[in-house]
Design goal:
The radius of gyration is 26 Å and the shape is globular. It has 23 helices and twelve strands. Residues 401-412 have low confidence and may be disordered. Among the domains are: 46-301, NagB/RpiA/CoA transferase-like (Rossmann fold); 434-485, no CATH class. The protein has 496 residues and is an alpha/beta fold.
Length: 496
């Protein structure tokens, strides 16, 4: 499965091909518009939505400020309940731990609950290299796996596929992975779901090892929580003899009471439901009920470094609802693959560069994959100010410098192509400190506007290739104000 994004081009190059794919754009437009409308209706039902949003923000911020204490409490509670806790500093360590645990059981196949964390670390590829086959059981993840594809959405990984494409994938690939699809399979949703159900059922009944992530971890009790819509996750969480959960450390919440907030905001923001159809919770192991062995792998993989950034750390509030993707005009046109990460869209544009660093072309380009329209902030159920973090990361990319990551110094090189931008910013700074020069330039531009081209030359050519160059008005705002309102001059030479 080509599930990794290693070696992908920077966002502008990747997006250029996507925006010319008419089928992709139609699929995205239909799906995001539908989800967006339903989410708005679900949120409107709650008169206290703003209060819930603020509560979620406060809970997350409090937890992140005291994360060391709550992680220690979580480890103690999981251990007391019969589970085993493992700590993974990065993806390689997490993969070694999970691979070793699976190999110790003697099994050569595992069933998986949909998990962003395991995609982030490339667990399926690591297991395959060790001779273990991982079966995705979420319907959308199954489509992605069978199609040798990559996920393109947090909530709906196969959002870029339509029903006809899914039918063709099932017909062509199910045989290679297990039970084949019916010969007369059509593209009706009911038949596609039934084909997936029959294909997966034999894997659920056979597998001895299950792998999951978690939406939340409750520190006071050591309880893990997974919310889903299909029930396939619950099959993976209850039927195998061994359960291994790989969870980012930021998924911790202090108490059971805190779950009340997120179990209201998450389903409405993601699937536009009042409550997720399946909310599974487990605490350690219980004799005669569920897996006999439970392992929790707590994943850092750049999260501690992100936590050290006073502005960027708010990205760790994310509860993976994907509401920001569904309102983003850039995502709707470019799709998820252009972001070169398992975290696409606005949240991916601020999370991936912090988890992976901004010293690669793709990660240095992600903070620029936005119009800064602010729609993502408006719908975020934990009030992450994504535009603020984007601007912060753009500054970091443009300036370069050094940061400390996992005990080593990493040089952040300014991304190629930003030299002209930095020169333009310096010129703008000079102009804004010389108002007389600005007024002279405005008047010159107004008097010569009939000769202005419709497209910019040189570096500006790319910008105007997809945008109209704004027309220059016959006079500047300052001159208009002075002429119509008798504005006076201040001591710096400006009009007011």
């Amino acid at each position: 499965m080509s599930g990794t994004f290693v070696g992908m081009p920077a966002f502008p190059e990747a997006a250029r091909g996507a925006v010319h794919n008419a089928t992709l754009r139609a699929n995205l437009r239909h799906a995001t518009t539908t989800i967006r409308r339903k989410r708005a209706d679900a949120v409107a039902e709650l008169s206290d939505w703003a209060a819930l949003r603020e509560a979620g923000k406060q809970i997350k911020d409090h937890t992140l400020r005291h994360l060391d204490r709550y992680l220690g409490q979580l480890e103690d509670a999981v251990t007391a309940a019969g589970g085993t806790v493992h700590w993974a500093a990065d993806a390689d360590e997490a993969n070694r731990i999970v691979t070793g645990l699976v190999k110790a059981t003697g099994e050569t196949e595992v069933v998986k609950v949909k998990s962003m964390a395991t995609q982030e670390i490339g667990l399926n590829e690591a297991l395959e290299a060790a001779g273990v086959r991982a079966y995705e059981t979420d319907l959308a993840e199954l489509i992605v796996q069978l199609g040798d594809d990559r996920p393109s959405h947090i909530l709906v990984p196969a959002i870029h596929r339509n029903r006809g494409e899914i039918r063709d994938i099932f017909r062509a690939e199910m045989t290679r992975w297990g039970r084949p699809a019916p010969d007369d399979l059509t593209d009706t949703p009911a038949e596609l779901a039934e084909a997936a159900r029959l294909h997966l059922r034999e894997k659920f009944l056979r597998a001895k090892v299950g792998i999951s992530g978690a939406n939340f971890m409750v520190a006071e009790t050591g309880t893990l929580v997974v919310v889903e819509s299909e029930g396939n996750g619950r099959m993976c969480l209850t039927l195998p003899e061994t359960l291994i959960s790989v969870v980012g450390i930021e998924k911790t919440v202090p108490t059971w009471r805190d779950l009340e907030v997120f179990l209201q905001t998450l389903p409405r923001s993601s699937t536009a439901e009042r409550m997720n159809p399946y909310t599974s919770m487990w605490t350690g192991t219980t004799d005669g009920d569920g897996p006999r062995a439970f392992h929790l792998v707590l994943l850092d993989n750049g999260r501690t470094d992100t936590l050290a950034d006073a502005v960027g750390r708010q990205a760790l509030r994310c509860i993976r609802c994907s509401a920001c993707l569904n309102v983003c005009p850039v995502y709707e046109r470019a799709g998820g693959h252009a972001y070169g990460s398992v975290y696409p869209g606005p949240i991916g544009a601020i999370l991936s560069p912090q988890l992976r660093g901004t010293d690669s072309d793709i990660d240095a380009s992600l903070p620029y994959a936005s119009t800064l329209c602010g729609a993502c902030y408006e719908v975020c159920p934990v009030a992450i100010d994504i535009p603020e973090v984007l601007v912060h990361l753009r500054e970091r990319v443009a300036q370069g410098g050094q940061v400390t990551r996992a005990g080593t110094k990493v040089v952040l090189k300014p991304a190629r192509g930003h030299a002209a931008e930095r020169a333009a910013m310096r010129a703008t700074r000079w102009a804004l400190t010389h108002p007389g020069a600005v007024r002279a330039g405005q008047r010159l531009a107004s008097r010569t506007r009939r000769f202005h081209p419709s497209r910019l030359p040189g570096p500006g050519k790319a910008w105007t290739a997809t945008r109209d160059l704004p027309a220059v008005p016959p006079e500047s705002f300052g001159d208009w104000w002075k002429r119509t309102n008798g504005g006076t001059r201040d001591e710096r030479g400006g009009s007011r």
